[in-house]
Structure formats: structure tokens, C-alpha cells
Design brief:
By secondary structure, the protein is of the alpha+beta class. The chain is built from 5 helices and 4 strands. Helix 1 packs antiparallel against helix 2 (38-55) and helix 2 (38-55) runs antiparallel to helix 5 (118-128). The longest helix has 18 residues, at 38-55.
Length: 160
Amino acid sequence: MNYPTLNIFSFYNLVLAKIETNIPDPFIQGNDLSRTSYHNDLIIAAKEALVNCLMHSYYDGMVGVKIVDRPSYFEFTNPGTMRVSKESFLRGQYSSIRNTEIASLFRRIGVSETAASGGPRILNTVLQNNLNDPEINIDYEIYTTRIRIFKTFAIDNHEK
């Protein structure tokens, strides 16, 4: 009711703006003694998860799209289960888009790129910045997919 002109694209813009302001920007020095791009990398990963959430939603489902921002993670939940395996998603091996029209429009305006590129971008961000592994949960009872991307760094268990 507060957003009478809300559509998928305006929802995307609203959420992305909030995501960008809620990502910490710590000073992290890389091996080459330059500052690393944790902030920008995490924006890219969160954007990819948001785009995937919107493109792969089953909009006739019983639940809606839900984006959660916690201090240690982002969580993207959409109605509809993944149509590829978790491994295939993270490797970018195969894509089975549920909403091809939304995907086509997002590509035309520059929001998304090639099919099956979101998972590898998320995984690359995690690996490059030593973040906790993303969690992908598929709930077949309520027919939802949830992707959690952590903002926190992985703890080296060997040092503990």
C-alpha cells in the first residue's frame, strides 16, 4: 500500500539501494599491500542473489519474495525451488530460468548478464574475500529457495 507503483524493477532498485548502504567497508590489505575490494565484491554478490531471486521466483506461489539483512548476512528467499542443482548453480554449468521475460528485460537494461553467471560470481566473492560459504536451502514443503550470503569472514579452524 505504501508503494502504489511498485513493480519488479522498482523493487529491485529499492532493495539494491538498501543493500549497498548496509555493507561494511573495512580496511583490508591484500597480499600486494593494496586495499582489497570487499565492499564492491559483496555488492556484486548480493546483486546477483537479488537478481536470481527475482528472475527465478514462482510468482503464483503461496509465499512472496523476502529479502533479509542481518549484521552478519543477507538472505534472499523466493517462492519456487531451484531448477538446477546447488553445485551447478555455484559452478555456472547450467541455467533453467523460470521467468524468461524478466530475465530478458533485466539483460536488456544491464541488470543481469549471461545465464548461469550469478552463482560463480557469488562463489568468487566468497573465495576472494575469505567469507563464510554461502548457504543454499531448498524447502520442498513450502516450495521456496533461500540463499544466504555472509558478510563475515571465515574463521580459520586450524588457528583455533
